[in-house]
Amino acid sequence: MTFTNASSKCHRPGAHVWADRFDGERSKLGQLQVDFVARLANSLGVELVKAENLRAMRERPNNPNAVDLLLRGWAAWDKGFTPANVNEAIGDFERALQLDPKYTDAKIALAEGLVERVIIRGGNEAVDLPRAETLVTSAVSEQPDSALAHFVKANLAFARGQFNDMLSELDVAIENDRNFAGAYNQRGVAYTLLGRAKEAIPEIETALRLSPRDPSRNAWEFNICNAHSIMAEWEKDRE
Question: pTM higher than 0.70, yes or no?
Answer without folding.
Answer: yes
